[in-house]
Design a protein that fits this description.
The complex is a heterotrimer of chains A (272), B (283) and C (404).
Chain A: H1 2-18, H2 21-28, H3 46-52, H4 58-89, H5 95-107, H6 110-123, H7 130-154, H8 159-166, H9 171-199, H10 203-209, H11 216-224, H12 229-253, H13 256-259
Helix pairs in contact in A: 2-12, 3-12, 4-7, 4-9, 5-7, 6-10, 7-9, 7-10, 8-9, 9-12, 11-12
Chain B: H1 3-33, H2 48-55, H3 57-88, H4 93-105, H5 108-119, H6 124-131, H7 151-186, H8 191-220, H9 223-228, H10 236-244, H11 252-279
Helix pairs in contact in B: 1-11, 2-11, 3-7, 3-8, 4-7, 5-7, 7-8, 8-11, 10-11
Chain C: H1 2-14, H2 31-38, E1 42-48, H3 52-70, E2 73-79, H4 82-94, E3 104-107, H5 109-117, H6 140-143, E4 144-145, E5 148-149, E6 154-161, E7 163-167, H7 178-187, H8 200-214, H9 226-243, H10 258-267, E8 272-275, H11 280-286, E9 294-297, E10 303-311, H12 319-329, H13 332-339, E11 347-348, H14 357-364, H15 374-379, E12 381-383, H16 387-402
Parallel strand pairs in C: 1-2, 1-3, 10-12
Antiparallel strand pairs in C: 3-10, 4-5, 6-10, 6-11, 7-8, 7-9
The chains are: A mainly alpha (272), B mainly alpha (283), C alpha/beta (404).
Amino acid sequence: MARKRGNFGLVLVAALVALPFLPLILWTFAGEWRFPDLLPAEWSLRGVRYLLDPGSGVLLATLTSLLIGASVALASVAVGVPAGMALGGYEWRFKGVVIFFILLPILVPPLASTMGIHLTFIRLGLTDTVFGVFLVHLVPTVPYTAIIMTSIFVERTGELEEVARTLGASPWRTFVHVTLPQIAPGVAVAGLFAFLISWGQYILTLLIGGGNIVTLPMLLFSAASGNDPVITSALALAFAIPAILALIIALRYLKPGEADDGRGLLGLGKVS
Amino acid sequence: MGGRVKIALLLAPALVVIGVLFAGGLLAALVQSLGYLPAIGMAEVNLDAYREVLTGEDFLDSLFLTVYVAGASTSAATVLAVLAAMALRRSSGRLAALVFQLPITIPHLVAAVGIALVISQTGLGARLAVTLGLIGEPKDFPVLLYDRYSIGIIVTYVWKETPFIALVVLASLRGVAADLEDVARTLGAGSWQRFWYVVFPVISPGIVAASLIVFSFTFGAFEVPYLLGKTYPTILPVMAYNEYRDIDLSARPVAMAINIVIAAVTAAFAAAYLRLARDLGRG
Amino acid sequence: MLVALAATLFASACGGAGTGGTGSSGEDRPFSKLEKEARGTTVNISMYGGDEAINAYVDDYVKPQLEKKYDITLERTPLSDTADAVNKLLDEKTAGKERGTIDLVWINGENFATGANAGLWFGSWAEELPNAKYVDWNDQSISRDFGYPVEGREAPWGRVQFVMIYDAAKVDDPPKNTEELLAWAGEHPGRFAYPAPPDFTGNAFVEQMLYGVTGETKPFQNPFDQMTFDAASSKTYDYLNELEPDLWREGETYPESSTKLDELYQNGEVWLDMSYNPQLAQRQINKGLFPESTRTYVFENGTLNNTHYVAIPSNAPNKAGAQVVANFLESPEAQIAKQDPGGWGDLTALDIEKLPKDAKEKLAEPQGAATLPTAVLQNNRLPEARSKWLLELEDGWQENVLKN
């Protein structure tokens, strides 16, 4: 009985989760679709053609988003791993304060700090550049990678490292050959979330990029403010697909138990 | 190598990034909010911006709306999340995980656009209503977007945040709570009693922690209300942005003052969350 | 390190020309030199991006033509509001950034005036362009931009005139003045809306109502006067507040842009629309977006008309290229392509009388059943008010109408 109720519940929840995608998929392939028809009267590939047309700038924007996302992921992981090591692997006096400080950008909107730093960025020539956008994307991502890596390091006891040290390995070799393979799944998750956070940024990119650095969410927002649901939906799907792909990769690569352990990854929800 | 030095070095990159880009930005915002913008000739520190902001009707309307939207979204998401987690705890782990994790990875803008196409007066919902003969024209369908109750915004937030809270609750439910519940059942407790006296107390710290995060996030979030919100009143982050975009640069301190207020409120929630997390003895 | 690299590039780009711009101004060099200098360069134009037809004109016609004729690569930066570009230039000036990223801005009215007051525009170059000979610089509505003297700092690109749009199949007798509009809205609640200022079209509607309610236009051509403004604006706001309950959504919320209002009209939610482009209705009919029964009309006391321009920021990195592009935009062929209701449909800024015969024929008469004949448009022109009146009017609208 509980199983049946559970399954019904699952179907209901799945349906609700899928609901926003329904109009997105329909509109993307719609030709003529007037109110109050439930399905388009004509289908068309205009939406798809728009995505692939070099003139529309979608391909370039996607590449820009990917470039920024990948660099942000790499950089924030590089910064987050040592931070996680310090916070998760050791006990020390001001840890609480540091954790609070690192946690702040997750809860305090980076928009506030970015507006504050905008003029400085202009003065330093960082506005209208990919590098400037990259820098500002680090603000919401580094706290995440640090917190994720902290929870990874907390779970580890350091025994293996001790063994390696006793056998004479240098700290660096220990790290590369012992620690790294062990924390690799955590690093992958951290990198993935950093990528997704950067991928989904809009206002930070708009503010620092000055309209010159065009990423996919900027195109989507612009289209969503217009009156062509076909283009808007096509862009929305193009924007969502890498996110879904990332999820599938993560689920394949990691065992489900690790990925959805809400306890260790508390705070994980504010990805995008 | 000294332990202290080692820790400091490990932390340095993260602290520098957050210190310079985030704390530095907030500091700059604070300075500008006090009216210090020498580049445009404002060199006197004063509290004018704060006075204007805190006593202005706009600000209070906006604050009220922001609290309402964050509060309603968080409450709805929490209730639904608990219900969903309770209903799905016996389902296959992988499937439930997938269903809950999908919305977490989908960008807010995508969710907003999709939901808008469902609930707008000419959206899927309205078309279905016409097919079922419930309404005749778009204007008969209830107004759920750009409306005074911010329903579109709240629905989007609920769609996005419920799975997050549900995952947290689910993790709790499958852990200690499950064992305790079995014990309670053996002792003869009914299902409501089991929930209220056994399960709920165990999962509630997790729920509260997750809700704090969701409230804080929705309080300071920009994109969804910017796309789906009313012209006026608008939520605080959008109000700050509009002030920032004003050609009249003397509006800058006001924009920064609003930013500082947002930062203060959300930081307070961050502190509360940390206190709670620490009390639970989580690592 | 990146900053150092950028600084080196900047320094080397300045060459021996002194401060940023003089090396590539049009003042002391013949146009052919500018053309040569512009070859192989990129020009960035920042312009409102919310209208697909306008974007298509620039992307699909102007861009390839510039490649072919002048070997110039045009990059279009879409803006959701021209004020954003002005803001950016102001920020850059405040921060001392001497070499910006914008070469051309599509602009007019209060944005131009604000920029001019802040010294943001390169000038004066517009009257020296070869195609400037087709422009009637003596025309007040060209030499003054919403009353503000242009002085060669921007080149006219096109003209607009405010028209009302209606669906003749649903509306027999569209309202021709303010009283009739109020009455019509009362009889058809929820069927009329106007975009919220500061949207360009929304601003125009409120300005039209200002003229209609006060019955005058002259005072607003003069410098701003607070007392006159207070009296005139309170009458206008009273009128708009009286109108509000009969608007779409009972005025609880306003469409945030003219594009959104068009969408409402397309869906049949509202029966009246409005636009600064007299050919918009025909263009949308041709695209199958507006119903075929759509027609346009003007208010009985006339409608606003103005010119829109392109300006060059003083920190533009490619002023030579910008001028070559501006010159092309003003060329008769580009203007003909622009006026085609199959594309943008924007009216020409050139003086018909000064054009060669075949261009004259093509530009004299707009096409389409939904577009009003040129004579009707010309005989019903009202001048725009000076920017300061409009800025105050917009702000006042937010305070007195939106927040009620």
